[in-house]
Amino acid sequence: MSDNHFKYSNSVIALPLFFVWVLWFVYWLQIKYDFDFDENGILPRIFSGLQGIVFSPFIHADIQHLYNNSIPLLILLAALRFFYAKQTYAVIGYGILFSGFITWIIGRENYHIGASGLIYVLVSFIFFKGIQTKYYRLVALSLAVVVVYGGMIWYVFPKVDENISWEGHLAGFITGFALSLFYKTPEYKRIIKYDWEHPDFDPMRDKFMQRFDENGNFVNLPKMEPEEEIQAYYSSNLSVDYTVVENEKNESKPEL
User: Where does the chain cross the membrane (predicted)?
Assistant: First the structure.
């Protein structure tokens, strides 16, 4: 697969905007009508708390919590949609479900809310998938994710901040890594334009390279026999096409 695999579409911008708009709309409903959506979050090891697996990413405690999650989602969802278009919806959907379920298993007995679990899914998936492909563009994206969001790794450990759900972060990180292993991407290859780019290229068989010795000094080729010269001439890729057209005096002339 070549670089043409990466194609921009309106969904690269529309998807992140729509997802974040839903988060803000839910928060607006919570403020406008004084709803308490916190009870719809993940409540670990309680059967009724399973509903939070689906609802918790859309629930936030306050405006600061919502804002802190909105910016990374805009960036990471756009990157996911552009570079991993075919895997986008599966990563988002399964990322929410699996990270939520793991949080339900390992989490503290409290309501876990917020889209930070999904953010860790995206960071983990984009980073590990880029490294696995060994393709220069995706590796560069992985390094960019490390530079921008590398500090987030500390929040998958307990007791760093008691006010955050480190369990949700850890669950998202594990889920993103697992999805990067499960979903295969095409084998990315550079388009080969020149003969010397082929892995089996032999410089000793190239006419141009034969004019240089092992030290890089220019040398003249040994004189070839007439039969060899004819064969070399016809083996070249030079070709000329001629067409015949009629002029006004009905005389034909060759045109190059």
Answer: 12-30, 66-84, 91-107, 113-131, 138-157, 163-183
Q: Which amino acid, residue 52?
A: G
Work out whether strand 252-255 and strand 243-246 pair parallel, antiparallel, or are unpaired.
antiparallel
Task: State both tokens at 97.
Answer: 């479900």
Going by the DSSP 8-state scheme, the letter that residue 41 receives in this structure is S
Asked whether 87 and 183 are in contact (CB, 8 A), the reply is: yes
- With contact defined as beta carbons under 8 Å apart, do 42 and 106 qualify? no
Question: Looking at residue 218, what DSSP letter applies?
Answer: B
Coil/strand/helix, residue 2: coil
DSSP assignment letter at 84: S
Who has greater pLDDT, 117 or 185?
117
For the chain, the domains span 3-182, 195-255
Identify the weakest region by mean pLDDT among 44-53, 56-65, 85-94, 236-245: 236-245
CATH architecture, domain 3-182: Up-down Bundle (1.20)
Looking at residue 134, its pLDDT comes to 86
3-class SS at 36?
coil
Least confident interval from 36-40, 78-82, 122-126: 36-40
Side-chain half-sphere CA neighbours of 9 within 13 A: 12
Q: How far is CA 80 from CA 13, 89, 90, in A?
A: 11, 9, 11
Q: Give the Cα separation of 72 and 179 in Å (integer).
A: 19
Q: Above pLDDT 90, what percent of the chain?
A: 62
pLDDT reading at 139 higher than 60:
yes
CA quadruple 99, 100, 104, 110: dihedral sign: positive
Interatomic CA distance for residues 39 and 56, integer angstroms: 9
Give strand pairing partners of 246: 252
